[in-house]
């Protein structure tokens, strides 16, 4: 996510908040009615209630909401912006790394500057760093997300197994779960943004654990993907697959299908962003789901979680209804709007003192954030969107036997070195 994001996210990631398709497209930019606002979002399952609350708080206002899958949205948004068919308000991912990211869209002049809004200077430094382009804020980042093992507590209890906190325990956990007939994790690699999440969770510890300055070294040319611990993380990802950590045929399972497996106890859980918890609860209202850090070494003290700002919202620089668009973004960043959004997503707010009480399922994520044992989703600091796209398609090719880890990392290096 990148959606880390994720991501996707995972995002991602993220992560964006990175979610499944829920409508017939994103063509929603026409019309200049001062009481009608057009929004396109990937926050399926959470943005709907936020929109309802916004309409209730603004009598007479009508929101035309279109939701879209992450892949569909990222393929279309630049074309819509350049052709004048984009909505007033749209999902924008923090930092860089994908076609819908803040840096990419702000650099092209597609986003309204939000620096003059009261919430902008209040963003924490780590969040602000991925909300700004050339010192100006262009995206309203309302929530923080993390990537880890999301367990179905009822299925876990039935298995008699205990969540692992070391790499050796993780592999043993996967083998034991498989032997009991219930794979450890559902993996929906048919949707290519899903492929990055396990890798990001492993990279956080293997790469950034020993070297928090890795991004700066990449920027200065002191290291590369192919000559770093990214190779170790990718090897561990494939070791998990060979050890039976995932259900059969991850490439034949999409995001929604993977949720169904985890929600119904056909797997013990999934490696995902915390945004998936609310979706799992929709599929299984009686279920309890908890996020735990994915271990990558045999020292639990070394484990780091990828955690960063989730996808937020930006305003089209050529919005048909700029005033209403600004009102909506400010509602999202208000205590009421932010709390409602993160509650629906199962996330954490970016601004302090909102009064939000985090779900117990996020206790470990909160602990890691407070202890500074997190790193941003990797793609948020990459110089262009091509690196992530190469990674996502390359991971699918590796899972289908059409590529190799060495080839993928070299291709990512080539794209990274091409710059912005």
Description of the structure:
The chain is α/β, with parallel strands linked by helices and 420 residues long. It has two domains: 36-145 and 309-369, 3-Layer(aba) Sandwich (D-Maltodextrin-Binding Protein, domain 2); 147-306, Periplasmic binding protein-like II (D-Maltodextrin-Binding Protein, domain 2, 3-Layer(aba) Sandwich), CATH 3.40.190.10. 38% of the residues lie in helices and 13% in strands. The chain has 16 helices and 13 strands. It has helices spanning 47-57, 70-83, 102-107, 125-128, 153-159, 167-179, 195-206, 214-219, 230-242, 255-263, 276-283, 322-332, 335-345, 363-370, 386-399, 405-417; strands spanning 36-41, 62-67, 89-92, 132-133, 136-137, 143-152, 185-186, 269-273, 289-292, 305-309, 312-315, 348-349, 374-375. Strands 6, 7, 8, 9, 10, 12 and 13 form a seven-stranded mixed β-sheet that branches. Helix 1 runs antiparallel to helix 13 (335-345), helix 7 packs across helix 9 and helix 15 packs antiparallel against helix 16. The longest helix is centred in the N-terminal third of the chain and has 14 residues, at 70-83. The radius of gyration is 20 Å and the shape is globular. The two termini are 20 Å apart. The model is unreliable at 1-31 (pLDDT under 50).
Outline of this structure?
This protein is of the alpha/beta class and 420 residues long. It has 16 helices and 13 strands. The protein starts with 35 loop residues before the first strand and ends with a helix.
């Amino acid at each position: 996510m990148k959606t880390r994001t994720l991501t996707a996210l995972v995002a991602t990631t993220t992560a964006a908040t990175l979610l499944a398709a829920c409508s017939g497209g994103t063509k929603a930019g026409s019309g200049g009615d001062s009481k009608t606002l057009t929004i396109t979002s990937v926050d399926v399952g959470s943005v709907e209630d936020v929109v309802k609350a916004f309409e209730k708080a603004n009598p007479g206002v009508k929101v035309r909401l279109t939701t879209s899958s992450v892949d569909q949205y990222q393929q279309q948004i630049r074309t819509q912006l350049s052709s004048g068919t984009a909505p007033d308000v749209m999902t924008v991912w923090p930092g860089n790394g994908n076609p819908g990211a803040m840096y990419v869209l702000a650099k092209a002049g597609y986003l309204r500057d939000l620096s003059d809004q009261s919430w902008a200077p209040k963003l924490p430094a780590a969040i602000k760093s991925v909300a700004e382009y050339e010192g100006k804020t262009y995206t309203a980042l309302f929530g923080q997300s993390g990537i880890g093992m999301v367990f179905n507590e009822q299925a876990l209890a039935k298995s008699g197994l205990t969540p692992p906190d070391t790499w050796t325990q993780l592999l043993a956990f996967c083998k034991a779960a498989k032997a009991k007939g219930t794979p450890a994790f559902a993996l929906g690699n048919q949707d290519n943004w899903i492929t990055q999440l396990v890798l990001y969770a492993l990279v956080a510890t293997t790469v950034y654990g020993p070297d928090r300055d890795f991004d700066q070294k990449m920027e200065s040319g002191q290291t590369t993907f192919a000559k770093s611990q990214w190779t170790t993380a990718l090897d561990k990802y494939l070791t998990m697959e060979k050890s039976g950590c995932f259900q059969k045929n991850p490439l034949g399972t999409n995001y929604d299908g993977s949720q169904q497996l985890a929600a119904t106890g056909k797997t013990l859980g999934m490696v995902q962003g915390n945004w998936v918890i609310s979706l799992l609860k929709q599929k299984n209202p009686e279920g309890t789901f908890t996020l735990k850090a994915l271990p990558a070494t045999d020292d639990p003290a070394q484990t780091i979680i990828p955690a960063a700002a989730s996808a937020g919202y930006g305003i089209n620089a050529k919005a048909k209804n700029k005033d209403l668009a600004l009102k909506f973004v400010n509602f999202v960043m208000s205590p009421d709007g932010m709390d409602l959004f993160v509650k629906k997503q199962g996330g954490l707010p970016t601004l302090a003192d909102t009064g939000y009480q985090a779900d117990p399922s996020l206790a470990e994520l909160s602990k890691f954030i407070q202890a500074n044992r997190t790193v941003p989703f990797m793609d948020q600091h990459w110089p262009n969107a091509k690196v992530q796209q190469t990674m996502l398609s390359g991971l699918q090719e590796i899972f289908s036997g059409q590529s190799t880890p060495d080839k993928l990392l070299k291709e990512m290096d080539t794209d990274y070195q091409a710059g912005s």
